[in-house]
Amino acid sequence: MRNFFIFTLVILCDTMVELRLKVGPKGQVVIPKLIRERYGISVNDYVIVELREDGILLRGRPSRKKLLENLVRHREYVKRLGVNARLGDLKGEFLELEFEED
Fold first, then answer.
1. Nearest CA to 47 among 33, 61, 35?
2. Same-domain pairing of 50 and 84
3. Which helix (H) or strand (E) holds 19?
């Protein structure tokens, strides 16, 4: 008989939900389809696991393709705002000084 460990996955969305999932013999946990779709986790995507005092936090991580799409979309948005920023414009600037309180 195989032993399966059960842990609770806490999902923060519109409401807090606790979901009990079984951990298989290789330590694998299946993320339900509804949750994968809600957080944009697809086949072969990576997820980030953060170890915390009160448990484990599992976060989706965008693929390189999705990240590039988001960067292109953001660049177009910045252009529409009329901002003409270029890579290296802030080189040598000390931004900490800009935000210091007097």
1. 61
2. no
3. strand 16-23
52 token code pair:
């915390």
One domain, residues 31 and 54: yes
Calpha distance 32→23 (Å, rounded): 13
**Amino acid letter, 16:** M
- Reading the chain (102 residues) residue by residue, the pLDDT tens digits are 444 444 444 544 455 567 888 889 999 989 988 888 888 888 888 888 889 888 888 887 777 787 888 888 888 888 888 887 777 777 777 766 666 665
Q: Residue 39: which domain range?
A: 5-61
Report the run of H or E that residue 52 belongs to, with start and end.
strand 46-52
CB atoms within 10 A of CB 33: 9
Q: pLDDT digits over 59-82, tens only?
A: 877 777 878 888 888 888 888 888
pTM score, whole prediction: 0.47
